[in-house]
Specification:
The protein is α+β, with helices and mostly antiparallel strands. Helix content is 39%, strand content 23%. It contains five helices and six strands; from the N terminus they run H-H-H-E-E-H-E-H-E-E-E. The strands form three sheets. It has a two-stranded antiparallel sheet. It has a two-stranded antiparallel sheet with strand order 2-5. It has a two-stranded antiparallel ribbon with strand order 3-4. Keywords: Signal.
Length: 171
């Protein structure tokens, strides 16, 4: 009788009794049955009930969402340490320039054509007397108002900046 109750034999018997349950723990629980159409109670086995509780517990769902948020923040924090490059450009095509009507003949008056000297002015100057010369003006042109366009056909600006932020990301 002593040989039957040896520790080795007891260990093998215990191992044989535990092996089927260990194998069951490795298999996935069966699919959950659909809820009854009238909103009644679902009949679940113990592994199905545990699986259902794990999937639908609100605190576990909140923990999973917090984990996803934390993973997303890791990328945000890493990017805060990288250089930031900002480039901008704009171009405006002023396809219709502003125009004003200007009468240029009003600005200068008649053109100067020089000074007329007569023979008497020359003789007086040779005799040593003072001679007053007066300018001679021609006829002022009458052009009338002329359209004058002003402004730039194309206008634009560009900007670029590179910075490295050494502070931490905003919380």
């Amino acid at each position: 009788m002593k040989k039957l109750l040896s520790p080795k034999l007891l260990f093998l018997a215990a191992l044989a009794g535990v092996a089927p349950t260990a194998l069951l723990a490795q298999t996935a629980p069966a699919a959950l049955p659909a809820a009854l159409p009238n909103g009644g109670v679902m009949a679940l086995s113990l592994p199905q009930a545990v699986s259902f509780a794990i999937q639908n517990k609100s605190t576990l769902q909140a923990t999973r969402l917090a984990e996803q948020t934390a993973r997303a923040r890791v990328g945000e924090i890493k990017s805060a340490g990288l250089p930031q490059v900002n480039v901008g450009a704009n171009v405006a095509d002023n396809f219709k320039l502003q125009k004003s009507l200007v009468d240029f003949s009003r600005f200068g008056g008649a053109p100067l054509e020089g000074t007329k000297l007569t023979a008497q002015d020359i003789a007086a100057a040779q005799a040593g007397t003072a001679v007053t010369l007066s300018p001679a003006y021609g006829e002022a042109p009458q052009t009338g108002p002329t359209p004058l366009a002003f402004g730039l056909r194309y206008a634009g600006s560009t900007s670029a900046s590179v910075s490295r932020c050494s502070s931490t990301a905003p919380t």
